[in-house]
Amino acid sequence: MSILSRVKPDFWNHRDGSEGPFKHLFDFRRIWKLAVGLSAAIALAPVISMAVFEYKVTHNAMEAEVLLRTARLVSNTRRTVSFFFSERKAALDLLVRQHTLEELKKPDLLTGLLEGLQKAVGGFTDLGVVDHQGRQQSYVGPYELEGVDYSDQEWFKEVVLRGVYISDVFLGFRDLPHLVIAVKHDLPDGSFYVLRATLDTARFNDLLSQLEVSGNGDAFIINREGIIQTPPRYCGRVLGKISLPVPEYSSRTRVLEEKNFNGQLLVIGYAYVTETPFILVIGEQKAELMKSWYRTRTKLIGFLAASIVAILVVILGVATHLVNKIYLADEKRVMTLHQVEYANKMASIGRLAAGVAHEINNPLAIINEKAGLIKDIFTYRKEYARDEKLLGLVEWILTSVGRCGAITRRLLSFARHMHVSIEPVQIKEVIDEVTGLLGKEAEYRDISIHVDVSDDVPAFESDRGKLQQIFLNLVNNAFAAMSDGGRLDIKVRRETPDAILLRVTDDGCGIPPADLKRIFEPFFSTKKKKGGTGLGLSITYGLVKELGGTISVQSEVGKGTSFTISLPIQLKQRKKGNG
Amino acid sequence: MKVLLVDDEEELVSALAERLSYRGIEASWAGNCLDALALAELENFDVAVLDVRMPKMSGIELKRRLQKKRPAMKFIFLTGHGSEDDFKAGSGEEGAGYYLVKPINIEVLIKRMKEVLG
């Protein structure tokens, strides 16, 4: 037997035989589906919608937190970068304010100032003074740049125009990445000069490389053309072009989401560093940033799935149990109803039979006595010679009356046993009564009935009327299945000390396996077209149950059917024990 | 042995009385309970064979009345009805078990009569 058929509840294959507008009330599978569907919908809808709602709220909060964190990091770093430049610019400003051009042109002083800058602020490589014609008047540093003419260079034009200049990072003459910061100082005569310093980018780079960026992130600076200014960790090299588009200008820190060439979602925060050509960019992988959320999400989904499974298991269990209970209660109700109906029918038949028997018995008694008298006259009176022929005829009348009397007595016996009464029953007598009633039909159809009651079967306490009905039903059924000339076997054995076994076996047409399962169901009939009600075997089943027994059936199509009934003899044993 | 047969079916009791007389048993019969009581006034019967169900008075009631008149009289009931009620009615009285269902066998009746008389 498969697992499915083992867990399948009793009502699953129930097909209600009744018709009419209330038929659907007894469709237990539909009731079950409705119960499971509605319960599941009512129980699961709030759980799932709450979970989805919570998921969205938490997800959005986590996302906002991630963006905020990036924005805060960008903002802080921008402030640091900005401070880096403004600190150096302020230092140069201080120098031009405190010293005259003539003083600054003196190499000794300039050397001292450079050393001072390196100690106090750091990052300065060299220092030079450029006159208003773009010629370097004085220079201290590792290179020979004194007298260099910068008048054609962009930075010089820029510083003349704006008063201050911070260059992009470039390799310059020394093939080392560096940048230039220059401040213009106006003189009282309308002329000006420029203090120019080269900054070592190592300090600048350290600032970004030491930045703790989570989520496999990167922090670097680009210029407004998208050229990378500081060494990135993953995204290219210094002075290379970034793969992403240059973010549009904004005076504030901005955070946006972009996909990289791998299709991974990146959270990119950027800020334009004021008074410099630089844009600070911090990029982080969103998946990495959301890792903790994903872990929580997995747990949440797992918990939700487990809850749904638990709810469904409970709903399925409860619905199946309850519908099965309803089904069994209904089965019991239907069975009881049929038994009452059957009992009423049998009682009516019984009353009718008793009435008929009584009415017939009186005229029969008169015939009996009159015929007896005729016989007596022929026997006792000499004047009526012993006419053998007449005596023979009278004898025939008397024999026939005897037969009629036996029939009416049997009918009366049935009628009497319509009432419930527990009494010692000799099973052989019951079988003889039943076969006596159906004997004529058997004779006409040439069916041989073999009754075999084992000697060790005791008289047991039971309801004689119910036993008669059981046998009557089984023998009637067997007759219906048998063809003329068949054989019916009725065997009774003592199965155990507590039970007797009755078996009614015919050699009729047999029952197909599909019908065999439903044979004891009320209203199940294969003979409906021939007037069968489908009640006989269900009633028999009920009667056997009432007597505390069990009934089973074995059948093979074309070979015959065998009904086996096991009846307890406990009542008798209890009485024995008591008495 | 003197026997009183009572049944509302006169044809039955008259024939039965004649048949008993062929067997040496003196039998009188009555077609109703009043005639039966009148007969019992005149004669002393050893055994009364009564139908259980008769018009006006049941066999059980008749038995009660006859018993008052003739305490030594024994009774056998006849019935065409085998119902439990009749059976109880018959067996609940003295002489329980002497109860025959119609149609009866005359030899069985004689045997029963002899039994009740001991």
Topology readout:
The complex is a heterodimer of chains A (579) and B (118).
Chain A (H helix, E strand, L loop, with lengths): L2 H5 L20 H71 L2 H4 L2 H14 L3 E8 L4 E5 L13 H9 L1 E3 L11 E9 L5 E9 H9 L8 E6 L30 E6 L5 E8 L5 E8 H4 L1 H90 L7 H29 L5 E4 L1 H19 L2 E6 L6 E4 H18 L5 E10 L2 E8 L6 H4 L19 H11 L3 E7 L3 E9 L1 H9 L1
Helix pairs in contact in A: 2-8, 8-9, 8-13, 10-11, 11-13
Chain B lengths: L1 E5 L3 H13 L3 E5 L2 H10 L4 E5 L7 H11 L4 E6 L4 H9 L6 E3 L4 H11 L2
Parallel strand pairs in B: 1-2, 1-3, 3-4, 4-5
Helix pairs in contact in B: 2-3
Name its key features:
heterodimer; A: 579 residues; alpha+beta; Beta-Lactamase; Heat Shock Protein 90; 5-stranded mixed β-sheet; 51% helix; disordered C terminus; B: 118 residues; alpha/beta; Rossmann fold; 5-stranded parallel β-sheet; 5 strands
Short characterization:
In chain A, 51% of the residues lie in helices and 19% in strands. Chain A contains 14 helices and 16 strands. In chain A, α8 crosses α13 and α10 runs parallel beside α11.
Q: Can you walk me through this structure?
A:
The complex is a heterodimer of chains A (about 575) and B (about 120). Chain A is built from 14 helices and 16 strands. By secondary structure, chain A is an alpha+beta fold. Among the domains of chain A are: about 120 residues, Beta-Lactamase (2-Layer Sandwich), CATH 3.30.450.20; about 90 residues, 2-Layer Sandwich (Beta-Lactamase); about 160 residues, Histidine kinase-like ATPase, C-terminal domain (Heat Shock Protein 90). In chain A, helix 8 runs antiparallel to helix 9, helix 8 packs across helix 13 and helix 10 packs parallel to helix 11. The relative contact order of chain A is 0.07. Chain B has about 120 residues and is α/β, with parallel strands linked by helices. Chain B has a single domain, classed as 3-Layer(aba) Sandwich (Rossmann fold). Chain B has a 5-stranded parallel sheet, sandwiched between helices. In chain B, helix 1 links the parallel strand 1 and strand 2. The N and C termini of chain B lie close together (about 10 Å). At the A-B interface, helix 8 and helix 9 of A face helix 1 of B.
